[in-house]
């Protein structure tokens, strides 16, 4: 039985257009999914769209169209985004699909059967924009004295018959669960935040609405539709075939990881495990809440018109370049402010000058001097052995970092080797050996090719197209690119003729500036 890994993005609301914040989460999940696949795991990677609720119903009404038409149109934008950012998700779920509705109704019935749902009357504050209920004490005052949710969203007073979930009964079970699973929430600061929230006491949660109908009908009482979050969270198990608990559910759910933004941590780390425990299902293995991207210090939003369009950014800088930037620029979990000058700095300083140049120096030299025939190495010097060992062992710290979702730490470890490799090349100076010691030159060129093979294999999750181009240029077979192929057992064969090399990471030159002339 292969090791399995299940990774999910949040399902995105269809009333917004995809922006760089959504792309960020999906890219992070994609990097993890690719890393695990290359590391021998059988991976399921899910994304999708959240299509029910008052917010969508209202947006459709404002546009004079049916909610499902709005959903069809906007869900496609998110499905297309996955293609644009190179996401390798193997499923995309929509909450309007029959498989999802069936799963929600099955979960509801399980909650009811286990005695965790009761009917009463709800009176309290609701923020449609957040699709969340708030206590009076959580509200703040807006500039004109109006009440606002902690997120800044306007709230309205809601009074209606509602089903409730006995969340209050889960304070102790949740705290016990967190104690027993200190890795359930990452980063640690979020774990502590959730822990103290639950410690402060939990109130029962209203989980149905009667004042609108765009949602999943409550089984047995069609006057009610389910609260959009109980509906939305169920997507994660619906996509595994729940209520069938054999097959995908059995294979993947014990290894589930949700990546979310910090805005929706309470839903994923408090409500969701409580719902699951109440239905006698296991909580997911881990939830990681990443930080928030702002643009010049401002929240990205439709109303401010400052949302960054991933399509435009990718067109300007390149897909792998943007993927690399997003994973490199800020430690996953921290907030970041978006600036384009930081992007070109990373592209030129790191991808072009360090990684790309390393590959181009080796491959270009082999093409020019040896007619593209990869030389066979002679005996290795201690320096050769040292850099080859660093390459072969790089997977160890990279794995540790990736298991903690420390993308920047994994890249730090990789870059330490990229820099050591460039120093190795400077010191060995194969161009100077051409006349004095061609046999040694051959060994150095071979070692350079092996270095690039290792780095390209490990960089595939971050920059898949470019890393695979490098591996193409080294003549590495498509089925010899997994982490199992790192190390000397799978080393390149001397004597192979390599395809013509071409630079993989061009420098970014702002429009209007001319490209620097070819160095001589
Ligand atoms: O909350 N910076 O959907 P949503 C970083 N449907 N990440 C950002 C971001 C930003 N500025 N803006 C958005 C929902 N995100 C619910 C989820 S899941 C069962 C239901 C990312 O469309 C981040 O991952 O508002 C955030 O959690 C998510 O988009 C919110 O997407």
Characterize the structure shown:
The protein is an alpha/beta fold and 520 residues long. The protein folds into 2 domains: 4-290, 3-Layer(aba) Sandwich (Rossmann fold); 341-490, Isoleucyl-tRNA Synthetase, Domain 1. 48% of the residues lie in helices and 16% in strands. It has helices at 20-38, 54-63, 67-84, 98-113, 171-180, 188-199, 228-233, 235-238, 247-252, 265-278, 310-317, 319-329, 340-370, 382-393, 395-403, 407-428, 430-436, 438-459, 464-473; strands spanning 4-13, 42-50, 91-94, 117-127, 132-134, 140-141, 147-148, 156-165, 185-186, 205-206, 208-209, 217-218, 221-226, 256-261, 286-290, 293-295, 298-299, 336-338. The strands form 5 sheets. Strands 3-2-1-14-15-9 form a 6-stranded parallel beta sheet, sandwiched between helices. It has a 4-stranded antiparallel beta sheet with strand order 5-4-8-10. The relative contact order is 0.11. The mean pLDDT is 96. Ligand ME8 is lined by residues 10-13, 16, 21-22, 24-25, 50, 232-233, 235, 260-261, 263-264, 292-293, 300.
